[in-house]
Design a protein that fits this description.
The complex is a heterodimer of chains A (about 325) and B (about 375). Chain A is built from 13 helices and no strands. Chain A has about 325 residues and is an all-alpha fold. Chain A starts with about 20 loop residues before the first helix and ends in a 7-residue tail after the last helix. In chain B, the strands form 5 sheets. In chain B, strands 6-7-8-3-9-10 form a 6-stranded mixed β-sheet, with helices on both faces. In chain B, strands 13-12-11-14-21 form a 5-stranded antiparallel β-sheet. Classes of the chains: A mainly alpha (about 325), B alpha+beta (about 375). Chains A and B meet through helix 8 and helix 9 of A and strand 6 and helix 2 of B. Bound molecules: adenosine-5'-triphosphate and magnesium ion. Adenosine-5'-triphosphate (ATP) binds next to strand 2 and helix 1 of chain B.
């Protein structure tokens, strides 16, 4: 029997200690150096201006910023303003319909495209194409299409349906729904792409297993595939919701907020009060409310995204 | 419970032919093991049986019904997938219960079945977890559970134990064997594990490149391989193949062998008539490591034995035996000797070669002679 040497000695002499060289340390810092200007710009122009807006919302600013503070008065005036309440109601209608319809159409298109059909690449591009247009273009095109005297209504009448009516664009009760139509047309292809990517991520053998378990195609979708797309639903809702809150250009190009202010949205309200009606204080207050709305959606999202690694979605 | 008849099944994906005419006639209640190198088409064949892939030509007949055109759900098969294929959105309980719910079993029966299966597979503690919170071995057991919860005509298992630790694997193997004895359901089971194959199977099908090379009982496949591929594939460590010449020695056909510069002759067993007729030709001798051992005196008189002194190149102790590498006809040969009698590398020791179970293959084709 031989005695084995002690396993660890308290202090062990080493021949050499490796230290990172100057070059290594520089290489480590390069990413930080590269992003720092962008970072600076972001801090000033995004967060700086956010804070400035908040400050202005408590001031008496009208056409130009003034730093004379009046507490919550701008907010009181804002919520006393009927036009703002119309804009909020419209946002509610528009936001809910836009998100729900986009999700429904996007999911349906994605499921149909996922059936291993021919020309899938081509169709995908077709559906995605509206996304490449700016909202202004979409708004303008739909303005023509929906205009009773040149668009769909006239087309219907020329086909022989003399009493065909489709005049939502010029009706103060229905004009907000035209914004929904145009926005859905623009964004549902994008939602489809999100869902399609999600569907492609579903392991083929899971579907096979469900088939062997006796599930019909529809059951496979409703019980397994769609539930497992929950994270995709989540991201899609977040994206659509904040597109909805920020919607400005589409409504402006399509209805201009009209007839009257019947299709006003908060973003249009904010723009007009801040920049055309010389009520910057109230406009800033409305902008802050919108920011709150976006944050109310994004913060839970970021929170869950950042801890998603820890447990199951 | 059902028989399964696979009739000349071909399967191609586009231009690539994966299955090239598979014929299998499996009786009701048989436990069939499917082995073969990776990519030879085992999973593809399983998918064809299950109806997940349409066969290109040929027929699949279950319980005397031609199901070639039937949907998977109408074939009444339960399958464990190589990739587990658990439903990611459901917890373990739901995963196991899903097939039963679809088949509209009463609630109490589902509860009871899931409980029974969970106990059998030792996954009771996991029932509330999602698949993403399980280890590979745990997922595999859930996948097993999902199949075992059902009472199908045929079970298809695609490497169901490959990710378990050694102890659990042995336990599960025994459980599967007991289960089969109790239920008597026909099972087709893919594995890469030699011991699983030998212990579980009623019959083993050895596949290579889309063909079945041999389909027989474990002992047949082990002792009487149809060709050099099967001989080399079954058994671990695998059979030694030694190129050698058949010569006439004192009026008897023998194998000429040279070890470390010394020439000698190995007897050819009487039953190997084909080889005896090939005097003067080169053949491949197949002999398993356990047939070259240290000298066991009480056996020494048998006519098929020969002793030879050889230098040890490498030793690999496995615990029960020591694998010892020597050279015969300048080719490396593995021998299995008792650990206490194994020499050290560089030593010369006497080996006893038992030619009783030696097999011979054609040099060119690899077929049994
Ligand atoms: N859907 C498919 N399309 C094209 N080729 C396929 C498809 N599925 C399988 N193959 C090919 O068929 C061959 C056999 O695959 P298979 O999965 O049956 O092998 P296997 O014997 O199960 O292998 P392993 O032991 O690795 O599981 C492989 O070469 C594979 O690339
Ligand atoms: Mg496989």
């Amino acid at each position: 029997m031989t005695q084995s040497p002690p396993l660890s000695e308290p202090t062990r002499a080493v021949r050499k200690v490796h230290k990172p060289s100057l070059g290594d340390r520089l290489a480590e810092q390069i990413p930080r150096l590269v992003v720092s200007p962008t970072m600076l710009i972001a801090v000033v122009f995004i967060y700086g201006f956010m804070i400035w807006t908040v400050v202005l919302s408590f001031s008496t600013s009208r056409i130009l910023p003034r730093y004379e503070f009046i507490g919550w008065q701008n907010y009181q005036r804002l919520f006393g303003n009927e036009r703002w309440m119309v804009a909020l109601t419209n946002l509610g209608i528009y936001g809910v319909l836009f998100v729900v319809i986009c999700l429904a159409i996007g999911l349906l298109l994605a499921i149909l495209l996922d059936q291993k059909i021919r020309a899938e690449g081509f169709l995908r591009t077709v559906y995605l194409y509206p996304m490449a247009l700016s909202f202004i273009v979409t708004g303008t095109v739909w303005k023509w299409l929906l205009n009773p005297s040149v668009g769909i209504q006239r087309f219907g009448r020329e086909l022989g349906f003399e009493n065909f009516r489709f005049d939502w664009l010029v009706s103060s009760d229905m004009s907000i729904y035209t914004v929904v139509i145009a926005a859905v047309w623009q964004s549902s292809g994008f939602v489809m792409a999100l869902f399609l990517a999600g569907l492609r991520g579903v392991d083929d053998s899971i579907i096979k297993a469900a088939q062997i378990d006796g599930a019909s195609r529809i059951t496979v979708y409703t019980r397994i595939i769609i539930p497992s797309l929950r994270p995709v639903f989540f991201s899609a809702i977040i994206m659509l919701a904040h597109i909805a809150i920020k919607s400005f250009d589409l409504a402006l190009a399509l209805t201009g907020g009209g007839p009257g202010y019947s299709s006003d949205l908060p973003a249009i309200f904010m723009y007009q009060f801040s920049f055309t009606r010389g009520q910057m204080g109230v406009g800033a207050a409305s902008a802050v409310i919108m920011l709150m709305g976006v944050m109310a959606i994004l913060i839970p999202y970021l929170y869950s995204e950042l801890r998603v690694k820890k447990d199951d979605r | 419970m059902a028989n399964l008849y696979i009739d000349n099944v071909h399967k191609s994906f586009g231009e690539t032919h994966i299955l090239k005419g598979i014929d299998m006639d499996i009786a009701d209640g048989e436990f069939i093991i499917l082995v073969g190198p990776s990519g030879c088409g085992k999973s593809t064949l399983m998918n064809c049986i299950a109806g997940l892939e349409q066969v290109t030509t040929g027929r699949v007949i279950i319980d005397d019904e031609d199901v070639t055109q039937s949907m998977p759900k109408d074939r009444d098969i339960a399958m464990v997938f190589q990739s587990y294929a658990l439903y990611p959105n459901m917890n373990v309980w739901k995963n196991i219960a899903f097939g039963l719910e679809i088949r509209k079993l009463p609630k109490e029966e589902i509860e009871e079945t899931v409980g029974r299966v969970a106990d059998l597979l030792q996954i009771r503690d996991l029932l509330k977890r999602k698949p993403s919170q399980l280890s590979g071995g745990q997922r595999q057991r859930v996948a097993m559970g999902r199949a075992l919860a059902r009472d199908p005509k045929i079970f298809l298992f695609d490497e169901p134990l490959s990710n378990l630790d050694a102890k659990l694997r042995v336990e599960m193997r025994t459980e599967i064997k007991k289960l089969h004895q109790r239920l008597g359901t026909t099972i087709v089971y893919v594995t890469h594990d030699q011991i699983e194959a030998m212990t579980l199977a009623n019959r083993i099908a050895v596949m290579k490149e889309g063909h079945i090379q041999q389909f027989g009982t474990p002992q047949e496949v082990y002792d009487n391989p149809a060709n050099q591929f099967v001989a080399g594939f079954m058994g671990s460590p695998s059979m030694n193949f030694i190129r050698c010449q058949v010569v006439d020695h004192q009026g008897d056909a023998t194998i000429a062998m040279s070890v470390d510069g010394k020439d000698f002759h190995l007897p050819i067993p009487q039953q190997e008539k084909g080889v005896r007729e090939r005097v003067g030709q080169e053949v491949v001798l197949g002999i398993r490591p356990e047939q070259i051992t240290d000298v066991v005196p009480q056996q020494e008189q048998a006519s098929t034995l020969a002793n030879v002194d050889a230098e040890i190149i490498v030793t690999e102790p496995t615990g029960a035996d020591t694998l010892t590498l020597i050279r015969m006809n300048d080719q490396e040969v593995n021998c299995r000797v008792h650990p206490a009698r194994a020499g050290a590398p560089g030593d010369t020791m006497t080996f006893m070669i038992n030619m009783d179970k030696a097999v011979f293959f054609d040099l060119a084709s690899g077929d049994r002679i």
